[in-house]
Amino acid sequence: MTNQVRIVEVGPRDGLQNEKMNVPTGVKIELINRLTACGHSAIEVTSFVSPKWVPQLSDAAEVFSGFTPKSGVRYPVLVPNLVGYERARAAGATEVAVFTAASEAFSEKNTNATIAQTLERFQPIFERAKADKIAVRGYVSCVLGCPYQGEIAIDDVARIARTLHLMGCYEVSLGDTIGVGTPNKARALMLAVAQVMPASAIAGHFHDTYGQALANVMASLEVGVRVFDSSIAGLGGCPYAKGATGNLATEDLVYLVNGMGMDCGLELGELAQVGAWISHKLGRENQSRAGRAQFAKL
Ligand code: HMG
Ligand code: MG
User: Ligand 2: distance of its center to the CA of 207 in Å?
Assistant: First the structure.
């Protein structure tokens, strides 16, 4: 199994979509530039969803045209439907991410659609993306539990992940949206999904609400998953999942990966500075323990 771990930084999107304060567009742009300078290979920069649903990211087009892209870095944006895809393309996006859920209740709350309806909405996106040579990433939410429905069947997650992969997602990110998963469950989930699609196309997206995200990463690494989403300073949450806190902090993930002798192309030092900077800008405590520890030494 490869020692390479790929980290997808989702702070500017998953992190900032949930901020109560109005984050200035300039701060969002500076965050993306600073994350790029840290050496990230993929940064999810914003989302072209309905501004009525997520007003925090209504400046998506300005953000997208404002940052300085680095050659070789992927900058995906979230899109829920063809309108979002067209807005993303008009802004210059070259990679999009579609999102659905393993829970019908969450799908309705988050997108006002059943799971089947979300997949139908994606069909024209895949067609257009193929013609436009645009890469499409996919998300399945609530893979280890749902705030409305409770337990989620592993088979449902596997079926939906496989469907997204077959439809054209080069990678499917499995989201523990409310961070309730524990390692045995995460391992079983990853093993089940790896039965129906290549393990190399699976990513783990663990929110850290119950402090289990790193443990769930370890369980996923053990069974061959090598791509993880994380968020600088542990920013994040989902406006449609009450009480869910941020993603696994990128700094904590990088400390784990490097400490295990694996390679993710990132160093804690610079990330810790960015984590401290954005936490200060947002007026919130840095949620990354590794980030705080490192920053205290500077
Ligand atoms: P709807 O209200 O059912 O849709 O929302 P609609 O088609 O009736 O549209 C309503 C209005 O929005 C219309 O405008 C549309 O034109 C407009 P009006 O006629 O009222 O003036 N509209 C749009 N405007 C801009 N961009 C668009 C767009 N689409 C419609 N793309 C919809 C359906 C899916 C649009 C809505 O529910 C939505 O935007 N939901 C997004 C919610 C969201 O962003 N949640 C957070 C991201 S998911 C997440 O965080 C989980 C993840 O991190 C993984 C994990 O942790 O599990 C990915
Ligand atoms: Mg998320």
Answer: 7
- Evaluate whether 281 touches 256 at the Cβ level (below 8 Å): no
Strands ordered across the beta sheet of 95-101: 6-9, 227-230, 202-206, 171-176, 135-141, 95-101, 77-78, 46-47
Instruction: Output the CA 15–ligand 2 centroid distance in Å.
Output: 8
Mean pLDDT rounded to a whole number for the chain: 96
Compute the distance between CA of residue 152 and CA of residue 160 in angstroms, rounded to an integer. Answer: 12
User: What confidence tens digit (pLDDT) does each residue in 179-222 have?
Assistant: 999 999 999 999 999 999 999 999 999 999 999 999 999 999 99
Instruction: Please say if 142 is a catalytic residue.
Output: no
Report d(CA 173, CA 138) in Å as an integer: 6
Identify the bridge partners of residue 78 per DSSP, sorted by sequence position.
47, 97
Indicate which residue of 146, 169, 238, 264 is catalytic. Answer: 238
